[in-house]
Amino acid sequence: MSTSSETVPDTPPVTAPSTSSKAGRGSTPGTAATPGSPVRGTRLTLTGASLGRPGATALDKVDLDIAPGEILTVVGPSGCGKSTLLRTLAGLLAPLAGGITQDGQPLTGPSADRALVFQEDALLPWRTLRANVELPLAIRGVSRSERREQARSWLERVGLGAQARQLPHRVSGGQRQRVQLARALAGRPRAVLMDEPFGALDAQTRAGMQDLLVEVLQGTGATVVFVTHDVDEALFLGDRIALLRAGGLVAVRDIPRPRERGAHDDPARVALRRDVLTSLGT
Ligand SMILES: Nc1ncnc2c1ncn2[C@@H]1O[C@H](COP(=O)(O)OP(=O)(O)OP(=O)(O)O)[C@@H](O)[C@H]1O
Ligand SMILES: [Mg+2]
């Protein structure tokens, strides 16, 4: 309630989410921690790891090495263990057996290094969009003026500069997801773990979010693990795609680049898409 009366001149007009603003976004004068400066992506490695809850193994003997800065997408049927995998990478669940490391060191719990984005709206409803984005910056001890500037810049990058002072319930579901993305990236995490973040959005908004995600991730350096039900979303976003089935990790495949929506012409893409759908039993 109180945050909406803050007095920062949030006047600049919105920038469109998908214009090429790569060169222009580092507008924070002379600071090392501009929103666009890259982080060192982290390596996440599971070795012979069994994942799940005690007495209920969801995924057995998973070997998976996620390289710094890559976008790994994860697909698999409902209940197969995608969220379990993500929670394990977040440090919220410990492997039942085997190991998990971050850059070669045992991963023992949650860390601000690894940001989580969920499908459900996790914004604080009583804080303005800007105040929500400022949260991880405050946790990192960034000064008040600096975090204002960075939050404003992040909101502009996701096309919500003009809405910075709104409360979450005053903007759409797609816009709230954009704020969540801005908030996750504002904390300059070395890994971003996303669990069906666009699952509740209509097809058009979703496609726009995919483009926006690609754009805002560019140059961040962060490692990304992105869980989705949607094979085409996974093939569009990923550098690699991991296929899960009840019980385990079936395969990890490289996705041809450059990134293209759909797989209409390229035989390699068509074959990959067919393989993925076949191994998912759809
Ligand atoms: N809190 C919990 N306690 C016990 N078992 C759980 C819990 N959460 C999930 N499970 C079980 O673990 C298995 C994997 O669940 P998980 O949520 O990882 O699947 P998922 O692939 O993310 O599914 P969805 O696509 O529906 O989100 C399921 O069998 C599920 O019933
Ligand atoms: Mg899930």
Automatic annotation (TrEMBL):
It holds the Pfam family ABC_tran. It comes from the Bacteria. Residues 1-42 are annotated as: Disordered. InterPro entries: AAA+_ATPase, ABC_transporter-like_ATP-bd, ABC_transporter-like_CS, ABC_transporter_ATP-bind, P-loop_NTPase. Keywords: ATP-binding, Nucleotide-binding, Transport. The keyword Cytoplasm does not apply. Residues 39-271 form the ABC transporter domain. SUPFAM superfamilies: P-loop containing nucleoside triphosphate hydrolases. GO terms for molecular function: ATP binding. This is ABC transporter ATP-binding protein. The lineage of its organism: Bacteria, Bacillati, Actinomycetota, Actinomycetes, Kitasatosporales.
